[in-house]
Design brief:
The complex is a heterodimer of chains A (437) and B (184). Chain A is α/β, with parallel strands linked by helices. Helix content of chain A is 44%, strand content 13%. In chain B, a hairpin with a 2-residue loop joins strand 3 and strand 4. Classes of the chains: A alpha/beta (437), B alpha+beta (184).
């Protein structure tokens, strides 16, 4: 639901139904709300059957890439004689995204239950929940909930009396966006610097501690108990559009909008209604100008594109962007796009782990040039330089952080070129000039 | 990686003074008694000692407020790593302090979504009202250090700030003086 606001009648609150209800945080409160029935059910099924239900449901990863979850799980080969691991990606650091935070703050047992089911399904006895270091409150809530689950025998050597071992440990990061990248997260968990690894080998072959590993986002795992209880068909039916995008999705909304917050809608919901009705539209006297719909790493949309988008994996691609992490950043007509693109470039320069030359140099130079343009010291030549650097940063590095830095620059130059040009011809930022006048 | 860039400007005068002091006062190990027991329990969660490095460093920072070179040596010995390795890891992450910081370490998100909601004005107000003056500098009374931070994962509650381990949501320039009265 639109936490911190009241639920909107057109939302479909499944993951977010209990946001804002402190009782749902406790084990007793969670059980009263139907909690741990799905885990009980799962432990009576074979791992292969669970994987099949998840495959059938069409659930796709909510961490950004949208990879089919059931298929990812099926890469973990049972009976290979090796220890398997499940990593839960709770690093949530993509600007604009704050949904996993609310899942952990309000419904920690939903994540524990989904994690336990996932671990069992992929043949892992141990799962680690890697939480970004700044999430001190979600961390405390999760640690407490894990403790409760152990005390009640839901986890441990004999999880729910099944004779199966499921251990879940909460692990705190220490400040580094890059640790959200799956192999960087594994390095970080192993006590190393958080540098992404070259793939292959993929995590399902050699992941955490060199052993077969699956990594999933918080929201992905939190959806799994609902799928087991209600069935794959129920989940699949929740789509207003493409059969490739099923279920509900939590969208975090921030920036220049009347009611920022988390909203849960079924896939395919019209983005126009979402922005203007559900989120309350622009602030008084303002107009929307641009949207970054899936966290800072996806292309900027013009309002024309945004207003004709259906909110699912295919729908955002059809309108010049991507669903990404579901972090919707809204800018109104008071905002300078050049300033924001420069600031985003600085974010990526700051967060680059610096092992690839194209990324280390490219993010730094992009930032320099963008800041120069913003200050009114740019030239028309700079556009070509930016595009050339962007091209060199795309598809050439160990991970896609490098590509992500080029994305707002390239899409910004394409869709808001006039704002770039105005900075150059006027030799100053037109928005600052207007504010000063 | 970003730790150095922001950390390098932090209260250099203060940190040099403290480092000199460290030379005079013998180093007290962190991992004795109950803290040592806590570490031993923690080690059981991982198949090897190295994996406990991040949580071990968090314990150091909780006990001492920052992670000194001496503490890195202690941690290295406990986890069977070299001090140089431990330092390599410490410097990668932004949240481990390599110098003592003001009693209240304030981090303000200024990434684009918060910037769109006026985070720059919150920074200005904090720098003025704490007396820090500049980003990374410690206030003359030693109470505060203010730095900018990248997205805190609370973008819908612009502008979030972190004061030590506590996140405060929806901070505006007008609310700053009221908020600061809580931190004596
Ligand atoms: C630079 C970078 C940062 C990322 N940050 C996150 C993150 O904070 N949370 C997350 O779930 N996935 C993040 N991802 C995606 C993960 O690598 C991975 O695809 C995801 O955790 C898989 O889970 P899913 O299949 O359930 O989505 C990031 C990827 C990159 C390249
Ligand atoms: S692309 Fe950038 S962040 Fe990713 S591995 Fe290379 S240097 Fe590191
Ligand atoms: S951009 Fe400020 S919290 Fe995310």
């Amino acid at each position: 639901m639109g936490y911190p606001h009241k639920s909107h009648p057109k939302e479909t609150p499944i993951l977010s139904k209990y946001f804002g209800e402190p009782q749902a945080r406790t084990l007793d409160g969670w059980k009263e709300r139907g909690g741990y029935r799905a885990l009980q059910q799962a432990l009576g099924m074979t791992p292969a059957d669970i994987v099949n239900v998840v495959k059938e449901s069409g659930l796709r990863g909510r961490g950004g890439a949208g990879f089919p979850t059931g298929m990812k799980w099926s890469f973990m080969k049972p009976g290979d004689g090796k220890a398997h691991y499940l990593c839960v990606n709770a690093d949530e650091s993509e600007p604009g995204t704050f949904k996993d935070r609310e899942i952990m703050r309000w419904t920690p047992h939903a994540l524990i239950e989904g994690t336990a089911i996932g671990a069992y399904a992929i043949g892992a006895e141990v799962a680690y929940i890697y939480i970004r270091g700044e999430f001190t409150e979600p961390l405390a809530v999760m640690e407490n909930a894990v403790k409760e689950a152990y005390s009640a025998g839901l986890l441990g050597a004999n999880a729910m009396g099944s004779g199966k071992r499921i251990d879940i440990h909460v692990h705190r990061g220490a400040g580094a966006y890059i640790c959200g990248e799956e192999t960087a997260l594994m390095n970080s968990l192993e006590g190393r610097r958080g540098n992404p690894r070259i793939k292959p080998p993929f995590p399902a072959v050699a992941g955490l501690f060199g052993l077969p590993t699956t990594i999933n986002n918080v929201e992905t795992l939190a959806a799994v108990p609902h799928i087991l209880i209600n069935g794959a068909a129920w989940y699949k039916a929740m789509s207003l559009s493409s059969p490739k995008s099923t279920g509900t999705k939590l969208f975090s909304v921030c920036g220049n909008v009347t009611r920022p917050g988390n909203y849960e809608v079924t896939m395919g919901y019209p983005f126009k209604d979402f922005l203007y009705d559900m989120c309350g539209g622009p602030l008084p006297g303002r107009k929307f100008k641009a949207v970054i719909p899936g966290g800072s790493s996806v292309p900027i949309q013009s309002m024309e594109e945004a207003e004709s988008t259906l909110m699912d994996y295919e729908g955002f691609v059809a309108k010049g962007s991507m669903l990404g992490s579901g972090g919707v950043i809204v800018f109104d007509d008071s905002q300078c796009m050049v300033r924001h693109i420069a600031r985003l470039a600085r974010f990526y320069a700051h967060e680059s782990c610096a092992q690839c030359t194209q990324c280390r140099e490219g993010t730094a130079w992009t930032t320099k040039i963008m800041e120069r343009i913003e200050a009114g010291n740019g030239t028309m030549q700079d556009f070509d330089t930016l595009l050339e650097i962007g091209d060199n940063m795309t598809g050439k590095t160990i991970c896609v952080l490098s590509d992500s830095c080029a994305v707002p620059v390239v899409s910004g130059l394409e869709k808001f070129r006039h704002e770039f040009e105005a900075h150059i011809t006027g030799k100053r930022c037109p928005f600052r000039a207007a504010a000063a006048a | 990686m970003s730790a150095q860039r922001e950390g390098a400007t932090q209260a250099d005068a203060l940190s040099h003074a403290s480092r000199d002091n460290v030379g005079e006062i013998p180093y007290e190990p962190v991992f004795v008694g109950a803290v040592r027991e806590e570490l031993d329990a923690l080690l059981g969660r991982y198949p090897n000692k190295m994996a406990a490095l991040l949580p071990t460093l968090w314990m150091v920072q909780r006990e001492r407020g920052w992670v000194s070179e001496e503490a890195m040596v202690e941690v290295a010995a406990l986890l069977e790593l070299t001090p140089a390795y431990v330092k390599g890891v410490v410097t990668f992450y932004t949240m481990y302090h390599q110098h003592p910081v003001g009693r209240y370490f304030i981090q303000v998100c200024t990434t684009s979504p918060c910037l769109a909601c006026g985070a720059d004005k919150v920074v200005e107000s904090l720098l003025g009202q704490t007396g820090c003056g500049d980003l990374g500098a410690t206030s003359p009374d030693g109470r505060f250090t203010v730095i900018e931070v990248e997205c805190l994962g609370a973008c819908g509650f612009a502008t979030p700030i972190m004061v030590n381990d506590e996140v405060i949501e929806s901070v505006t320039p007008e609310k700053v003086s009221q908020i600061l009265t809580r931190f004596k």
